[in-house]
Task: inverse folding
């Protein structure tokens, strides 16, 4: 028999109307709630628990408002106040539309009023759920072909965001988290009245702008940063996407909290894992319909890192911090218990998990932005060099600008030579942690936490020392270097040691010294810290890891400052790659590239 929800609600009423057609039991069953997936968010089903031959069964009531159940041909009562208990436990929420955070909290906390359990589907890990989705999708306005795992990821995020109000995108580096987020935004482009807010480190502003313009040209962009940023909230409601930095977000929190955002995306979200930081506290106050922290390392030091990110994505899901720290100490057992709750809102896939979807080599260009002070100093280097060398000024200036982009502390003994042995002269006015150094350290952090090996190619030998100094708080790892001063007979021994290390390792190489003859397939992450004028030399360097014997896809990152000499070098490399096997000498573009290199300015305008 079906039991429509419009049947009498109380036990006495249903017995009076239907008691002549069914058996009636006077034994009151213990009530219970089952939490499952609803039409949009979660839904609660009320029922009674009956023990028969040692097995407990759940007998569902017509609705959470009914104080009885139909067990076959028998009407069985629930406590008369059960509907009131349900309303109290659900804190007034619609039983067919329960916030995800509330549903999870009810299943993890002991309840004296009524037993609450969750369907297995509610706690299905995000990675497992995504694997079951389609491998192809078409998104109007997206100028990109998604890999199958990316298509599954976007579909999962779309479904999960509607159900939970937030999630964590924790795919490993190289899997295209940025593209997946852009594709997600294009599923339903944000209106100007409620744009998407992307908060990221300063060094990633240029990359976000570049990727949005490349893959979703119909989305309008506003960069909220610097002296000319918006002054009132209506000045923010002029584009689909607003991009800002963590520091600007803290300074302008009153402004950014003045409207409801359709999405709040937090890139490199490990920057807000400390719940006591100003960044984290400010971010939590921004009204949003959905939040997505992005990080390849959601747990870096303690389980509190994960609480902080989950509480941003789905506020209240893991309860109060003080209670959480008692319930989930930093133990393996606690981590496993916590994962059962958090895995449903985390998408974390490794390269090895989706290797079948990937090409053998993944090239990632990472444009960076010089901050205002470094941009001013960049201009000063160009101006003073051109004045000092009126004849050979163009060539010398490009060499000095390359040196400056590598790191402002580097000084060459001869201005006119690209000296790989450039010395380090520390400065009180320029910090060690430049935008490029910050990005490199962030990449290394994820590599080391995941116990990977990485090759870093840098044209100036002392950059390895600076990188190690900047990464002083990184997880323990083996460090080595090969450059022009490394004896030929010692180089293979260094590679062998790097390859045999059981754990994370970083090998810093000068491409001129290590661009040939070495086979370093133990690494599948390559970082080009400095571009090269000769694309063939860079390709040869990358081939140290991407060659026969490598069993996993190799991800190659190129770090460069946008609108500087480095961008010209990157574009020169892309031009040569487009020619494929054509025997066109690189030198035919020398004059053109040299001119463009001197016209580029860090504010994005040509001289």
Result:
């Amino acid at each position: 028999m079906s039991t429509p929800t419009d049947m009498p609600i109380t036990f006495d009423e249903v017995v009076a109307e239907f008691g002549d057609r069914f058996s009636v039991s006077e034994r009151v069953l213990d009530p219970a709630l089952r939490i499952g997936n609803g039409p949009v968010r979660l839904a609660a089903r009320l029922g009674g628990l009956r023990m028969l031959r040692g097995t407990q069964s759940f007998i569902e009531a017509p609705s959470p408002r009914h104080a009885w159940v139909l067990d076959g041909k028998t009407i069985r009562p629930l406590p008369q106040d059960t509907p009131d208990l349900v309303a109290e436990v659900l804190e007034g929420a619609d039983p067919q539309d329960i916030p995800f955070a509330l549903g999870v909290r009810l299943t993890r906390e002991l309840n004296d009023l009524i037993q609450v359990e969750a369907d297995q589907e509610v706690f299905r890990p995000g990675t497992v759920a995504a694997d079951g989705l389609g491998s192809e999708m078409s998104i109007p306005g997206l100028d990109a072909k998604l890999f199958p795992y990316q298509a599954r990821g976007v579909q999962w995020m779309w479904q999960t965001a509607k159900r939970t109000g937030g999630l964590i995108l924790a795919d490993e580096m190289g899997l295209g988290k940025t593209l997946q987020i852009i594709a997600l935004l294009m599923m339903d482009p944000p209106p100007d009245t409620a744009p998407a807010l992307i908060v990221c480190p300063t060094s990633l502003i240029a990359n976000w702008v570049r990727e949005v313009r490349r893959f979703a040209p119909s989305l309008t962009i506003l960069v909220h940063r610097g002296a000319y940023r918006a002054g009132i909230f209506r000045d923010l409601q002029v584009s689909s996407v607003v991009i800002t930095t963590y520091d600007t977000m803290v300074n302008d929190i009153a402004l950014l909290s003045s409207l409801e955002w359709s999405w709040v995306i937090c890139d490199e979200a490990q920057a807000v894992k400390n719940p006591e930081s100003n960044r984290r506290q400010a971010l939590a106050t921004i009204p949003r319909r959905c939040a997505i922290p992005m990080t390849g390392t959601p747990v870096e030091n303690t389980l509190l890192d994960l609480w902080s990110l989950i509480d941003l994505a789905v506020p209240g899901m893991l309860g109060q911090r003080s209670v959480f720290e008692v319930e989930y100490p930093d133990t393996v057992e606690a981590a496993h218990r916590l994962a059962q709750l958090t895995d449903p809102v985390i998408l974390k896939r490794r390269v090895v998990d989706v290797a079948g979807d990937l090409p053998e080599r993944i090239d990632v260009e990472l444009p960076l932005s010089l901050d205002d002070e470094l941009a001013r100093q960049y201009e000063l280097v160009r101006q003073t060099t051109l004045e000092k060398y009126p004849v050979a000024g163009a060539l010398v200036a490009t060499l000095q600008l390359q040196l400056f982009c590598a790191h402002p502390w580097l000084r060459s003994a001869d201005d006119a030579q690209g000296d790989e042995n450039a010395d380090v002269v520390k400065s009180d006015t320029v910090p060690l942690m430049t935008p490029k150094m910050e990005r490199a350290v962030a990449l290394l952090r994820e590599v080391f936490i995941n116990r990977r090996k990485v090759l870093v190619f840098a044209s100036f030998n002392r950059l390895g020392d600076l990188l190690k100094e900047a990464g002083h708080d990184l997880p323990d790892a083996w460090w080595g270097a090969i450059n022009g001063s490394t004896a030929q007979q010692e180089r293979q021994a260094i590679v062998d040691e790097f390859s045999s290390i059981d754990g994370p390792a970083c090998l810093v190489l000068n491409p001129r010294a290590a661009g040939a003859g070495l086979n370093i397939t133990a690494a599948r992450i390559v970082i080009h810290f400095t571009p090269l004028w000769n694309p063939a030399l860079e390709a040869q360097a990358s081939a140290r890891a991407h060659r026969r014997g490598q069993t996993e896809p190799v991800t190659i990152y190129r770090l460069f400052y946008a609108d500087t000499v480095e961008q010209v070098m990157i574009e020169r490399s892309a031009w040569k790659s487009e020619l494929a096997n054509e025997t066109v000498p690189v030198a035919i573009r020398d004059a053109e590239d040299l001119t463009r290199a001197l016209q580029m300015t860090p504010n994005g305008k040509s001289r």
Remarks:
- The first helix runs from residue 11 to 18.
- The domain at 430-599 is CATH 3.40.50.300 (Rossmann fold).
- Residues 148 and 357 are 6 Å apart (CA to CA).
